[in-house]
Structure formats: C-alpha cells, structure tokens
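#help-structures
NK: newbie question, is this the right format to request a structure? protein is Asp23/Gls24 family envelope stress response protein
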Amino acid sequence: MADIEHASERTAPGPTIASTPSRRSAQPAEAGGTTTIADSVVAVIAGIAIRETDGVHSVGKGASKALGAVTGRMSASSSLSRAVKVEVGEKQAAIDVDIEVEYGMPIHELASQLRTHVSDAVETMTGLDVVEININVFAVHIPGDDSADDSADTGSRTR
C-alpha cells in the first residue's frame, strides 16, 4: 500500500490551505492499484447488448435457458452470465454466445451488428479490447410457433 499521511502525522498544526492553486492540481494524479473485472461482469454486459439488438429472440440455450424459465428466480444478470461465455485476460476479452434469431432476419447482418454492438458496449464499460465474438445461431424463432418445441420433444409425428 502507498504511504498515506494521516492527520496525526502532520508537521504543522491544523490543516494547511494553499493560497494559490498549484499547476499540478489542475490535473488529478492517477492513483496506483489494480482493477480486476470478473468474467461474469463482462458476460452480463455482452448479454445485455445482445438482448438490445433487434432480431435476437433469445440468448442462451439448453440448461441455462431452461433453468431460468423453470425457476423464475434467476436474476437477469445471473441468467445472462450463464448464457454468454467469456474469457477475460489482463487487457483482452473473447466472447461466445448462443442465440435464437427471429425468422426473416438476415443472419449474417445480425451477426455483424451483434459483434459491433457487443464490442462497443464491453470496450466502453471495461476498457478491455474484445478480440473475438463467436456467435452460434442454434434456432430460428417462428412467430406464433412457440409450442413447436414441446411437440418436438414428445416425438409425435403426423403420418
């Protein structure tokens, strides 16, 4: 830790007030130390940016998505940190995400928009350089066809 002068260690009695501003005080001195950003923080930032993008129906798949739907008790940040996988280094981050897209959305354009929006959000909020964003489109959502997943699981087919 840096040496910090305590009030009891002052050499002059009472507070010292400078009568003229110093040139050094015009720019604040940068304090030393480290900042650590957890993977889950980056995952939540990325997940929110993904959900804000038109054309994305849902984020995450499988167990993380089902667990959030069943329990109903998962916070948004908790479910996003499970749905978006990240690796955070000292200065860089890599992001993997599974999404379900809306039918009719050009997937290649959506992926490009996602990479830009997610990268901007993460870099702005954390200062980390986003080196890659891997997008796995696992499904296409067809409006009005929300029960299709249920019937597909039962294995019933019309012959």
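mod (FA): yep, format's fine, and the tokens are attached above. The domain at 39-154 is CATH 3.30.70.1350 (Alpha-Beta Plaits).
NK: thank you!
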